[in-house]
Amino acid sequence: MHKKKGDNSLRKITIASHGEFAKGLKHSISLIVGKLADDIHTFCLYPSQSPMDFKEQIEQEIKQHPEHEYVFLCDIKGGSVHTVCSQLCAYENVKVFSGTNMNLVLDLLLSCPDTIETENREILLENAREGITLMTRDDLVEKKDEEF
């Protein structure tokens, strides 16, 4: 998660996951928002890796750049990636979300361009939750009945 040429943002967003989920989500986001997704970093934990290596690497950057806000979007609450990222909350400038989805990432990029204020946190979470729905055949039949 090193600063890229031209990356002046004070917020560093990292999607962190087991396997390739983080890379795939970033790719999907880039199809919608284009270059805005370029500032998203990814961390993919593979079976041969230790999440502690990631923690040590990122912790060095957090210590060197206390002026930045670090936002981690983790795949599974309580998983090894989330556990390690949560430990980084010991730093005041770190925020960790779990159960990340496309709605959350898009909302974060488009609605909170600079930092996540306290009042925005619940809105971000609520919007992410609202994006998760279940539709069945019964719902489709009900909708057709309502149309007539």
Topology:
Elements: E1 11-18, H1 21-33, E2 40-45, H2 51-64, E3 69-74, H3 80-87, E4 94-97, H4 102-111, H5 118-130, H6 137-147
Helix pairs in contact: 2-3, 4-5
Number of domain units: 1
Shape summary: globular
* Spatial ordering of strands, largest sheet: 2-1-3-4
* End-to-end gap: 54 Å
User: Looking at CATH, which topology would you report?
Assistant: Rossmann fold
Pfam families: EIIA-man
InterPro entries: Bacterial_PTS_sugar_comp, PTS_EIIA_man-typ, PTS_EIIA_man-typ_sf
Keywords: Transferase
Domain PTS EIIA type-4: 10-132
Description:
This protein is of the alpha/beta class and 148 residues long. It has one domain (11-146): Phosphotransferase system, mannose-type IIA component (Rossmann fold). 47% of the residues lie in helices and 16% in strands. The protein has six helices and four strands, in the order E-H-E-H-E-H-E-H-H-H. A four-stranded parallel β-sheet has the order 2-1-3-4. Helix 2 (51-64) runs parallel beside helix 3 (80-87). The longest helix is centred in the middle third of the chain and has 14 residues, at 51-64. Mean pLDDT is 86; it is low at 1-8.
